[in-house]
Amino acid sequence: MIRFDHVHKRFPDGTVAVADFSLEVPSHQVGVLLGSSGCGKTTLLRMVNRMVDPTSGAVWIDDVKATDLDPVALRRRIGYVMQSAGLLPHRTVADNVATVPLLEGADRRTAHRRAHELLELVGLDAGSLARRYPSQLSGGQRQRVGVARALASDPNILLMDEPFGAVDPVVRRDLQHELLRIQSELGKTIVFVTHDVDEAFLLGDEILVLRTGAEIAQSGTAEQIMAHPADDFVAEFIGGARRRLHTEDRDGVLAVVDADGRLTGYAEDWAG
Ligand SMILES: Nc1ncnc2c1ncn2[C@@H]1O[C@H](COP(=O)(O)OP(=O)(O)OP(=O)(O)O)[C@@H](O)[C@H]1O
Asked: Any transmembrane segments, and where (predicted)?
């Protein structure tokens, strides 16, 4: 469980990135922070692994305050995936994935065996890719390696900051579905940052639509937010995604279906 308890962040130059934010992401669930550039998503995410400490308020990981934990140890036990994948360019794919286990004293052979397993888990052919360098991979493959590396220490928590933002829409869809598959297998507690409404609705158990200062405009499931946007700001923000929905007859019931054919609810629930 991750709990943000009235966190506030003011940077030294006076910028208030987060005004007053509270949220609980239950264990094994995906919480999505959705909002446009600069609204404070990354700042919130980085409070979990102490790359940023709140000015006031606290982030709790289970029953422990993040600020009571050693930042280095914390970062090793929390997976972190960034938009750029953040791989080390002069290390092979296998070495990149094995970085944390090696730092924690695993022997090389065990760490590499685990790296191979993880590469397969994220849908890569370890046999042909493990010895390559990051520059010899496609953008989508690099992001998969980034996910494998984040999973290497078998963390309970995964932080994902626009992890699929730099790849084309088709690859992005593949990666999103791969993440759903991995999540159904591993059940991590995930905080996922995005400004893409479709991505948020596909992946999130709970979605928070944020305004500047990480103010929560609305929180809820994709179905709740789409059916009843809290105000004009939310309605406008999710407008495109809403329009991409259509209805279909499913077993005699009128179902609301997204562009991928995913059932998002039933028409009768949407009345009003
Ligand atoms: N180290 C810093 N010093 C001063 N201001 C900062 C710092 N880091 C972030 N900010 C500011 O805090 C606000 C929130 O930034 P943050 O990176 O959290 O937003 P974001 O929603 O993740 O944006 P993006 O989607 O563009 O990454 C912005 O106004 C940003 O300029």
From this structure: none
The angle that helices 139-151 and 93-103 make with each other, rounded to 10 degrees, is: 20
Which of 15, 84, 199, 237 most suits a substitution to test ligand 1, by most atoms within 8 Å of the C-beta? Answer: 15
Query: Which residue type occupies 240?
Result: G
Which pTM value belongs to this model?
Answer: 0.88
> Which residue range(s) make up the domain with 266?
244-271
38 CA distance to ligand 1 middle (Å): 5
Alpha carbon nearest to ligand 1 atom 7, residue: 11
* Ligand 1 first shell, C-beta below 6 A: 11, 13, 15, 17, 35, 37-43, 195
Domain count, the chain: 2
Note whether 132 and 251 are same-domain residues. Answer: no
Residue 43 CA: distances (Å) to CA of 22, 213, 232, 265: 14, 10, 25, 33
Q: Are 51 and 191 in contact (CB under 8 A)?
A: no
Q: Tell whether ipTM is more than 0.90.
A: yes
Are residues 229 and 267 part of one domain?
no
- Distance separating alpha carbons of residues 7 and 104, to the nearest angstrom: 31
Cα–ligand 1 centroid distance for 39 (angstroms)? 7
How would you write the pLDDT of the chain (272 residues) with one tens digit per residue?
999 999 999 999 999 999 999 999 999 999 999 998 999 999 999 999 999 999 999 999 999 999 999 999 899 889 999 888 789 999 999 999 999 888 888 899 999 999 999 999 989 999 999 999 999 999 889 999 999 999 998 899 999 999 988 788 888 888 899 899 999 999 999 999 999 999 999 999 999 999 999 999 999 999 889 888 999 999 999 986 666 676 778 788 777 777 777 776 666 655 44
